[in-house]
Amino acid sequence: MTTTQSGPAGRPAVETRHRPRLTDGVAQDLRHLIPEGICRTFRVMPYATTDGTVLVAAADADDPITTQVVAERIDRPVELVRHTVNEIVAAIDSVYPPQETEVETPDARRARMQIAQMLTRSGLISDEQLQRAMLEYSRTGDPLGDILVSHEAITEDVLVAALSEMYQMQRVGLAGFTPDLEVARRLPESLAHAYQAVPVAATDDLVLVAVARPLDAEQSAHVEEALGSPFRQLLANRTDLDQLIQRVHARHYAEVSTRLLMETRPEESAHVVISGGQKAGLVITAIVVVVCAVIWPMRTAIGLVAACSLLYLVVSLYKFRLTLRALGTHLETDVTDEEIAALDERYLPVYTILVPLYKEAGIVPRLVRDINALDYPRTRLDVKLLCEEDDEETVQKIRDMQLPPHFHLVVVPDSQPKTKPKACNYGLQLATGTYCVIFDAEDRPDPDQLKKAVIAFGRVPENVVCVQAKLNHFNQDQNMLTAWFANEYSMHFELVLPAMGAAGSPIPLGGTSNHFVTDKLRELGAWDPFNVTEDADLGIRLHREGYRTAMIDSTTLEEANSQVPNWIRQRSRWNKGYIQTWLVHMRNPVGLLRQTGLSGFVSFNLTMGSAFVLLLNPIFWSLTTLYVFTQAGFIEQLFPGLIYYAASALLFVGNFVFVYLNVAGSLHRGEFGLTRTALLSPLYWGLMSWAAWKGFVQLFTNPFYWEKTEHGLDEGHG
After folding, report:
1. Which of 429, 507, 665, 717 can bridge 490 by disulfide, Cβ–Cβ 3.0-4.6 Å?
2. Sheet bearing 231-235, strands edge to edge
3. What average pLDDT does range 188-209 have in this prediction?
4. Sequence ranges of the domains in the chain
5. Could you tell me which CATH number the domain at 26-95 has?
């Protein structure tokens, strides 16, 4: 705006320019130039442009951090113009209409500024660290102190000391503290877990309660009612308090993790390998076969060969059909980069990450690095590092690293069965996340996988309680075995599982990167601690309850076993678990059929049937080899007429399908270099059959034994 002022007599008029103010209004093209969170946190608002410079209203125009934050977000010259806080807040509210849950209260803002001033004046944090923390606060709204601790700018002890001074609350040290269990258990486990609070001492008229953060009025009322006595709060280190809660309630957690499914849904638990009805059925079948073999030996043998050949053929054709359906299509729930960028991090839920560890101390630093690399606010992460009590090396390694409080060391008491699902059940009881996911120690998930899962859960039907990401390997080019393993995973996760999901069939989950709605997972009884493929079993159980699984287009890279003995241990466990799962869910075939429908019933049996097909391979191969070298007449008699032609077709169809599936999976994923090794995959099939027989025998000799797979053997790759 230009005005002309008249000068004294005989002098020309002087032209002056009126400097725009925020009260003149906010220019339309500048309204969303800076995100709302930054505007509210730093009390700034761009409002006008003069001579190519963007004018930004600022409550503290001289603050270097505010100046830098604004300059980094505007790609033009910037000038901060001092305005009152009321003027700026009114402008922000006009551009971003406030909701009650979004706006920081005056008390919360004063507490945030007090923490920042205390830490900067004492030299405990630098301006750069404060700036990064303030920016994250502007996105998430999480407490500034917690943000600084999660990024290791300060320790939890420093923050507790600052909070103690702010709130004039006494501190208590819990490291090495031996609780009086009678006193500590006066507060029920549910409240202790929810409020992070534990009674540590008591008199006749007062209980001292250690808390991670000051309780609000409603929480305090609940605690006092549960205690039946007045209490006083003492601030404690969150990590130490977390460990204390675990020690106090360890017995309860151990019982639930082992016995919950077995006691509430005994018919769905693998604690009994073969039910009484199944034993009777097997005995009757065996008697019938033996009697028939005595009366009609050759006809009985021919019938068995025909039945096995039919199973072989049907399983192969089923997988082939699934693959054809998935080729050239996109059956996963897709999430775009634009949708991820548009997420408002203030509304992201707490996410629990369960990481089972056993004898893996060396891999912990890499694991911590990869979890911290996830594109998710660390203050919204609840990472449970699940260790067995007898794994002292890994437990000590985690303690020595002094990790920030979003990492929780969970020590699972040493008891049988010592399995991954039991450890996950134990950790699930301590979970605070709306959603939870399992990652193995060596996993490298896509950085945006958690956000993709959150978006997917908001988009899929309400009965979808699990989202499965794809799995593949980062060391696929190490040797022939890893290449075969990667081919198999590409086929399974790129083609077969998406096609099963699209068809509404029961999906046997992968062992990692399956994301759950936490409450629904608990409702289902979580994992079966006696099943050594707890993931596949859980996928079937949730389907039987009317829930569904969706696939998302996100990949977690694992370490493929590069050594045959290690690979055999893993694969034999998988096959043993598939047979366990089949036995559990076929205890009542009519009930399974009613719950899953005919297509789901058939799909389940053909999927689990792949474990039995692997057992048949060596038998057919042995018969073929024996005939080639001996021309034995009895082998010819086993394949008369139609059986011979069916078996010949099977030899072609089975091998073609297996090779084709592996080639198609790698091509679909774009791993063109792996297709050559897929042509040799019948050799891999031989290894699979070896492992299948080992697992089958172990089902009867040691059904609940969890064969440990070593990780970290390929630190030089990826």
Report:
1. 665
2. 197-202, 207-211, 231-235
3. 94
4. 26-95, 106-167, 181-248, 315-701
5. 3.30.300.160
Please state the rounded mean pLDDT for residues 230-256.
95
Side chain identity at residue 267, one-letter code: E
Stretch 67-90: mean pLDDT: 93
- The single residue listed with the structure tokens 């006092």 is 224
Instruction: Indicate the pLDDT class of residue 406, thresholds 50, 70 and 90.
Output: very high
User: Residues 444, 529: contact at Cβ < 8 Å?
Assistant: no
| The two three-digit tokens of residue 108, written as one number | 């919360």
Tokens of 12: 């020309």
Closest CA to 161 of 238, 235, 242, 241: 235
Element (H, E) at 310: helix 297-326
Residue 385: CA count within 13 A, CB half-sphere: 30
In whole angstroms, what is the distance from residue 355 CA to residue 364 CA?
10
With 90 as the cut, is the pLDDT of residue 656 above it? no
Mind giving me the DSSP string for 33-101? SS-HHHHHHHTEEEEEEETTEEEEEESSTT-HHHHHHHHHH-SS-EEEEE--HHHHHHHHHHHS---TT
CATH hierarchy code of domain 315-701: 3.90.550.10
Same fold, 181-248 and 315-701: no
Give the closest residue to 380 by CA, choosing from 113, 115, 141.
141
Cα–Cα distances (Å) from 640 to 309, 644, 646, 647, 654, in that order, read 13, 5, 10, 10, 20
Provide φ and ψ at 244, rounded to 5°: -65, -45
Q: Please report the pLDDT score of residue 6 as a whole number.
A: 40
Own/partner contacts of 698-704, CB < 8 Å, gap of 24 or more, are 698/572, 698/576, 699/273, 699/576, 699/579, 699/580, 700/273, 703/270, 703/273, 703/530, 703/576, 703/580, 704/416, 704/417, 704/419, 704/530, 704/532
What confidence tens digit (pLDDT) does each residue in 123-167 have? 999 989 999 999 999 999 999 999 999 999 999 999 999 999 999
| Beta strand ranges found along 489-597 (DSSP E) | 514-517, 548-558
- The encoded tokens of residue 609 equal 């049937």
Bridge partners, residue 555, by sequence? 470
CB-side neighbour CA atoms (13 Å) of 613: 23
Three-state SS at 249: coil
Q: Are 516 and 510 in contact (CB under 8 A)?
A: no
Q: What fold does the segment set 181-248 form as a domain? A: GMP Synthetase; Chain A, domain 3 (3.30.300)
Closest residue by Cα to residue 682 from 697, 664, 701, 660: 660
Give CA–CA dist 575/309, Å, rounded. 20
Q: What is the pLDDT of residues 658-712, one digit of tens each?
A: 777 777 667 666 676 667 777 777 788 888 899 999 999 998 888 888 877 766 5
Phi, psi of 432 (to 5 degrees): -115, 0
Q: Alpha-carbon distance 419 to 261, whole Å?
A: 15
DSSP-derived letter for residue 127 is H
Among 544, 452, 548, 471, CA closest to 512: 471
Cis peptide before 214 (omega within 30 of 0): no
